[in-house]
Amino acid sequence: MTNLAGEDWFRNPALTRVLALLNSDGAVGRVVGGAVRNSLLGIPVSDIDIATTLRPEAVMERAAVAGVKAVPTGLAHGTVTLVVDGTPFEVTTLRRDVETDGRHAQVAFSTDWQADAERRDLTMNALYVDANGDVVDLVGGLADIDSRTVRFIGDASMRIAEDYLRILRFFRFFAHYGSGRPDAAGLKASAAARSKLKTLSAERVWSELKKLLSAADPGRALLWMRQAGILTEILPESEKWGIDAIPALVGTEKALGWDADPRLRLAAIVPPDAERLAAMAARLRLSREEAGYFSAWATAPAVADDMAGTAFSRLLYRHGAEGIKVRLKLALASARVRAENGGVEDMQRAGRLSDLLNRAERWQKPVFPLSGADVLAAGIAAGPKVGETLSRLETEWLDRNFSVDRATLVARLQEIANG
Ligand code: ATP
Ligand code: MG
């Protein structure tokens, strides 16, 4: 029997307290899902979900008696969040599906562990750990963890028809934890049901896609999704562009210590077309910040790798660094693979792009020392002339690489005002 009692996350006194509270007087509570899976895979455990035979009201009552904070975060679907020493634990009553329509499930509370396991999506996500640390495996999840096989519980096409988001979850978990090829039955059922992805809410799709794109290496998952026609279904922008840039990007991230940024990975597989990207952002309901990232990228000017430092500073000043950094990162990644294939020129080009990127990373926009008030004080009447004069002086200041000080600019302004 596999036992996780010795694992640090399991020995956390806050968890011990929650499990003690749920495991008395005939009731049972067990850790389930991602925490068990990650622990068995040797990956750090972050949030801990718990399944229990107790009804949500009973969980609330027990928490009140024990002096544990309980928040009714989702009473209707059976979830109470218990908070101990600042750590939240989502405690959910065992459930079985009564009705599903591909997007929502109607559930009934139960005390049947087998039914609770079987309504989950993948075998590796349906493992429990009881209060003694023993792993309870009701669906063959342990063997699949060992072989890193991402597999649906039961019949893949039936499970997908219950909730089409599971197509994306299948590839997300494959991207993170799978090895070799995706499970054949899951792949086939996903491909067959792909046209149903458009019935899902944009928020759920983007949230899954983002998690998939955050995997250490999403390359293989994307390749299979593309071959199965699934990527085009959720991301038609990627159809002509392709996903060939992903391996170079992932390799560069590793070599240069960049964070795995799902936005940058997405930028690598869609064209830098402002209009299409705005439509993509609206369709997938990207946050304002995420949408801003893509529009900054698409509207950023192309940067020649041999650009002079002063010209580059002016570019950063005019366009902001954000979009230029995205362009440089993608260009650098592709120059680095070409350099690996032996091109001395590409190696030099990669070196120059890397220097430009470092400068862009350190860039702080200088503040133009004059304002409209200065122009008015110099005697120019309020009106379009004010803005014109300011922008003329700003250009002179830029052309001298930001080195003209305020006093000189004021004198120059006076000259202009005096005609
Ligand atoms: P992580 O939080 O690391 O992304 P997780 O496995 O905890 O992974 P969650 O999305 O938090 O994933 O879901 C918790 C558990 O609920 C899953 O492990 C799975 O058992 C079940 N689950 C979640 N979404 C679905 C779904 N769409 N269909 C079936 N079961 C699901
Ligand atoms: Mg989770």
From TrEMBL:
One of its GO terms (biological process) is tRNA processing. Residues 188-238 form the tRNA nucleotidyltransferase/poly(A) polymerase RNA and SrmB- binding domain. Pfam families: PolyA_pol (PF01743), PolyA_pol_RNAbd (PF12627). Keywords: Magnesium, Metal-binding, Nucleotide-binding, Nucleotidyltransferase, RNA-binding, Transferase, tRNA processing. InterPro entries: Bact_CCA-adding_enz_type3_sf, NT_sf, PolA_pol_head_dom, PolyA_RNA-bd. Its cofactor is Mg(2+). One of its GO terms (molecular function) is nucleotide binding. Belongs to the tRNA nucleotidyltransferase/poly(A) polymerase family. This is CCA tRNA nucleotidyltransferase.
